Amino acid sequence: MLFEINNLSKVYAGRKVLDIPELRLEKGKVYGLLGPNGSGKTTLLEILSFLLPPTTGEIVYGSRKVDFSEGFLQGLRREVVMVEQQPILFTTSVYKNVEFGLGVRGVPKERRKRIIYEVLDLVGMREFAEASAHKLSGGETQRVAIARALACSPKVILLDEPTSNVDIENQIAIEGILRDINIQKGIFVIFATHNTIQATKLSDHIVFLFNGRPASSVYENIFSGLISTDDNGKKYCSIHDKLKIAVRTNKTGYVKISVNPIMIKVLPARDARAGDHRLLGRVMQLIDEGDHVRALIDVGIPFSALLSQREYKHAPVMAGESVALFCPPESIEVV
User: Fold this and answer.
1) CA-to-CA distance for 329 and 276, rounded, in angstroms?
2) Which residues of 219-237 are buried (b: 16+ CB within 10 A; e: fewer)?
3) Is-contact 43 17, C-beta < 8 A?
4) For residues 266 and 92, what is the distance between their CA atoms, to the nearest angstrom?
């Protein structure tokens, strides 16, 4: 194992934002970290990158129990780097931004040059070497920040929502970079994302956080919304203007809901009857997971449904097909 976490918590102003009894992360893998806003994803990344100490608990990195003292952490921070959601670049050239960490480490100038162009090639930004960093787009800035991290030859790279503020072209590029640095260089990667499809596509394993705790994948359909009541007294959670889900709750105002993917029924759109618990969408991806087939469905937001192999063989759906999701009331939890 690369990371072993035991009884870890983080408390801010009396509020427990992380509560992780146990978590194991294997060497050489890619992990996707999923969860709604406020679930503790960024805090966990900051603790794993040794930038933030936990309030309680134990972390073992490699075979060493981590002591969150500056003297102990200096060596670990050479191996473990984090790229923030909105990285800040110096107002100099791209080349000098990537060079900074190498200079601090005393790497000879000629060797620096070789490393800089190697990592800029890896992220597809070599032609921007002399460009002003502050004039780059959001996606280009993210790629330079990744290059700057890679220049220091880390064993671990952690990324907080690396594609959240970028266009589709840079999103595709960054996804390719994450795969390449893991496969070509054997670097352990863990990245936080809201994008279930992206996490499924890129990750060897997925960690779900919900209210600061690791959650079973039954909680992966987690959304925030506003409770409203129609003229007939029926309650709905409005996720956005065009999507509302019927719920049974006494709660009002803004809430989080989770929808158990195992309990969702996927029907061909033509066979579905109208109803409060029906959502129309299109199948984006099908993934064979042994006992189940995972269907990733766009209903205005990504939705995940787990079909047993028997269900799937009885009524198979195809990628690109229009379908209806039936979410029975017992599949929905409001918190």
Assistant:
1) 10
2) bbbbbebebeeeeeeebbb
3) yes
4) 53
Task: Collect all residues with Cβ–Cβ distance below 8 Å to 70 and sequence separation of at least 6.
Answer: none
Tens-place pLDDT, residues 8-23: 999 998 889 999 999 9
Contact between 279 and 245 (Cβ < 8 Å): yes
Q: The sheet that has 302-308: what strands, in order across it?
A: 265-268, 322-326, 278-288, 292-298, 302-308
Residue 166: closest CA among 177, 154, 151: 177
What are 281-311's pLDDT values in tens digits? 888 878 776 778 888 888 887 788 888 888 8
Highest-confidence range of 75-79, 179-183, 259-263, by mean pLDDT? 179-183
pLDDT at 216: 58
Look at residues 193, 148, 149 and name the one whose alpha carbon lies nearest to residue 171. Answer: 193
Question: Token pair of 213, please?
Answer: 């705790």
Q: What string of H, E and C letters represents the secondary structure of the chain? A: CCEEEEEEEEEECCEEEEEEEEEEECCCCEEEEECCCCCCHHHHHHHHCCCCCCCEEEEEECCEECCCCHHHHHHHHHHEEEECCCCCCCCCEHHHHHHHHHHHCCCCHHHHHHHHHHHHHHCCCHHHCCCEHHHCCHHHHHHHHHHHHHCCCCCEEEEECCCCCCCHHHHHHHHHHHHHHHHHHCCEEEEEECCHHHHHHHCCEEEEEECCEEECHHHCEEEEEEEEECCCCCEEEEEECCEEEEECCCCCCEEEEEECHHHCEEEEHHHCCCCCCEEEEEEEEEEECCCEEEEEEECCCEEEEEEEHHHHHHCCCCCCCEEEEECCHHHEEEC
Burial of 150: CB neighbours in 10 Å, binned 0-12, 13-18, 19+: buried
Count of Cβ atoms closer than 10 Å to residue 53 Cβ: 15
pTM beyond 0.85, yes or no: no
